[in-house]
Every structure is written in C-alpha cells, then in structure tokens.
Design brief:
This protein is of the alpha+beta class. The chain is built from four helices and ten strands; from the N terminus they run βαββββαβααββββ. The chain starts with a strand and ends with a strand.
Length: about 240
C-alpha cells in the first residue's frame, strides 16, 4: 500500500465566490473529506476513537476555479502520542500545484472526550511519509494589543456530527465580516488556524484582532475563554 492517497474532486459552482473561485472554508471541507476517504481506503470499519482537528496551516498558490477538477493528495507524516500530522496538496487539471497544507489531529475517547494515544492499528497499517510542508507549529505572539473585530452566533448549519461547531465554519463566519472593498483587492496567501476548545449551538462568539506588519491575528472567544486562534497573510488579488 502506498503512503499517498490521491483522488479527483469536482469544484462546484455553489462553493465558489463571485469570481468563480473556491472559497477557503470549502477547501478545508474538501481536505477533511479526503482524509476520511484515506482512512476508509485502509480500514473497512471506523476506529473506535474520535478525531478532532487541532490545527491547519495552508499556503494558497493559485485560485481554484469553478467547474474544474481538483486533484487532492494526502499522507501521514508523523504519529506521536495523541497527535498525527497529515499533509495535503492539490493540483489543477494541468498538473500545477494550487495549494499545500499541514494539519494536526487529536485523538479522543468518544465517551469521555479526553485525549487518548493513537491506536496501534493506525500506526501499523498507515505507511508514513516523512515529508512535511510546515515543519514548525503555529506561533501566536503573547500580549498583543487587540481590538474588537466582530461577533457571531453558532447556528444550526455550523454544527457537525460531533455536535460541536465545524472547523471550517469559524473561518467562514470571520471572512464574511471583511469589507467588500477589501475582498475585491485581497486574497489569502497563508492561513493558520488552531482550535482550542469546542463551541456549541447558540453560543455567541466574540472575535478580537491584532495586526503586526504582514501578519493578522484573530482570536475567537466566548466570555473571555479562547476557542480558536487564526493567522492570516494576505496578498494582492490575482485576476
């Protein structure tokens, strides 16, 4: 069995913006779906553990066009303790790379919802590939000067099968708040997200922001409790 799992996906109209470009939050959804497909390709039955995304690091290279075919690849680059590192990259129909990413996943006991060690079956049956796109974990500076950016409520459509807010929904809510003028000129170059604690239906989440040179940091909180941290780097929009 090869270490890299590869599959083609159609890019649908309704997942794209007004330019016909795949929205970043939906790219996260494609990657999660691809990771699930990788596991199903190895195991006939699901492992008796719960997996939660701990972090994303994504580098966007080229816009992903509507009505195109996106070829995704994924592999596990590291498995230690409670975490695995899973890599992704994507290619357009001409074979040009359009993004690459590193994710970290935490294993939990489904009943106690506490961290558990990676199942031996997973380590034994998944061939590892040591190549990792992001060798270092996300870094968020301390003692930043923050300003209130927005707030939003966790809605029914945000809840996933684990009964908490879906990882991509945080990004979708935050990006909706940027002014139209900004979105017409800018696009994401680098995206980093680290998930700290679950959010549930009905909660109101506040977002604070801090900007340091080319890095924009956003902190999603609920009554002062940190839920998610994000890091954005923007570039001029490619036409």
């Amino acid at each position: 069995m090869t270490s890299v799992f590869e599959k083609d996906y159609p890019v649908f109209h309704f997942l794209c913006d007004e330019r016909g470009i795949l929205r970043p939050s939906y790219l996260l959804g494609y990657m999660v779906e691809h990771a699930i497909g990788h596991e199903k390709n190895v195991f006939e039955e699901s492992l008796d553990v719960m997996k939660m995304l701990h972090s994303w690091q994504v580098h966007f290279l080229l816009p992903i066009q509507k009505e195109s075919v996106l070829r995704l690849r994924t592999w596990i680059s590291e498995a230690k303790g409670f975490f695995i590192k899973r890599e992704f990259d994507g290619f357009d129909e001409s074979g040009e790379m359009v993004f690459f990413a590193t994710s970290r996943w935490l294993f939990l006991d489904p009943k106690k919802r506490r961290p558990v060690r990676i199942p031996k079956d997973m380590i034994e049956f998944f061939p590892m590939r040591e190549q990792s796109y992001f060798g270092k974990s996300l870094y968020f500076p301390k003692d930043l000067e923050k300003e209130k950016f927005m707030e939003f409520q966790v809605e029914n459509n945000d809840i996933d099968e684990n009964l908490h807010m879906n990882n991509a929904a945080y990004l979708s809510h935050v990006l909706k708040n940027y002014p139209r003028e900004w979105c017409e000129k800018k696009e994401l170059r680098i995206l980093g997200i680290e998930y700290r604690k679950e959010s549930i239906f009905g909660e109101t989440l506040e977002v604070e922001r801090s900007i340091m040179e080319n890095d924009e940091y956003l902190f999603v909180e609920q009554s002062g409790e940190n839920r998610v941290e994000m890091k954005f780097q923007w570039r001029e929009r490619k036409e």
